[in-house]
Amino acid sequence: MSSRRSRSRQSSGSRITDDQIIDLVSKLQQLIPELRGRRSDKVSASKVLQETCNYIRNLHRQVDGLSDRLSQLLASTDTDSDQAAIIRSLLME
Amino acid sequence: MNKYNPPRMNPSSLRSRFATRFLRTLSKINAQKPTSSSSPTEIFRRYRRIKAAADKSMAYSVRSRRTWSRAMLWKLRTRPCGRRSVKTSTIIKSREARKTRHEKQNKNTTTTTTTTTGEDGVVFGVEADELRELVPGGEAMDLYNLLDETAHYIKCLTTQVQVMKKIADFYSP
User: Fold this and answer.
1) Are B69 and B62 in contact (CB under 8 A)?
2) Average pLDDT over residues B95-110
3) ipTM of this predicted structure
4) Which PANTHER family match (chain B) (predicted)?
5) How far apart are CA B102 and CA B16, in angstroms?
6) Do A74 and B29 make contact, defined as CB atoms within 8 angstroms?
7) CA B40 – CA B23 distance, rounded (Å)
8) Which of B16, B56, B124 is most worth mutating to test chain A (most A CB atoms within 10 A of its CB)?
């Protein structure tokens, strides 16, 4: 094994290869709108992780904002009768 | 297709499971409206419950198939929401305190450190630690699982945002 491999994390059990990590990183890259479509050898792994963190924080913020919006909207409505309509329109998408 | 129903998405997809659960919880939250339902405290309380409901619904829809959903469910169960209005600044402070403690710990142990060199020889230890703070249950994961769980977590988060957006748009005047 090359010295690079031996510097890898001492795994508990199965040997995780660098290639597997690289595969996962490029899979992540495809999920992030900022980096999607860019060649994976042009984006460093640490950039992918950085952007992943930013993206997750962004999504968290969106959930917060939407929860806030919903809490204000729900103040004045009754939800039961609309549920079926919402679900149907959601699923139709 | 000979189906009677109009063509629709897979009823057991994550999206519809989440949507159904979340809507059900929303009705429950809405049904508990007190008389002063538009006071800021009440709205804030409802916001916390809705947010917890969104996370819970998502975690339940994933069930225990994923480490992050298990961690999230555990967290939601052991921290009662609604009554205690923890200020966000306190949460952020304690999170940062945990992070610095965590980083100090990582420097000593090798089993949890994420110093793996990628193809370009860059060590992404710090970013991985940051990611650990963001993904539920990430503290205990090794790098491989962390990356794997993160991908799934992101997919679920985007579904959550999409569904919540649709619901909010539906109720918007």
Assistant:
1) yes
2) 51
3) 0.78
4) TRANSCRIPTION FACTOR IBH1, TRANSCRIPTION FACTOR IBH1-LIKE 1
5) 37
6) yes
7) 23
8) B124
Distance of CA B77 to the CA centre of its chain: 13
Facing B20 at nearest CB: one of A18, A62, A87: A87
- Whether B43 sits inside 8 A of A45 (CB atoms) is no
Rounded to whole angstroms, the Cα distance separating B153 from B59 reads: 10
Nearest-angstrom CA–CA distance, A71 and A60: 16
Q: Among all chains, which residue has been given the structure tokens 């402070």?
A: B93
**If you count residue pairs, one on A and one on B, with CB atoms under 8 Å apart, how many are there?**
183
Q: Which two tokens mark A3?
A: 């010295």
Q: Which of B50, B115, B149 should be substituted to probe chain A, the one whose Cβ sees the most A Cβ atoms within 10 Å?
A: B50
Q: What is the mean pLDDT of residues B120-139?
A: 77
Q: What is the pLDDT of residues B45-86, one digit of tens each?
A: 888 899 999 999 999 998 778 999 999 888 888 876 544 444
- Alpha-carbon Rg for chain B in angstroms: 20
- B161 vs A7, A20, A63: nearest CB: A63
How far is Cα B159 from Cα B148, in angstroms, rounded to an integer? 17
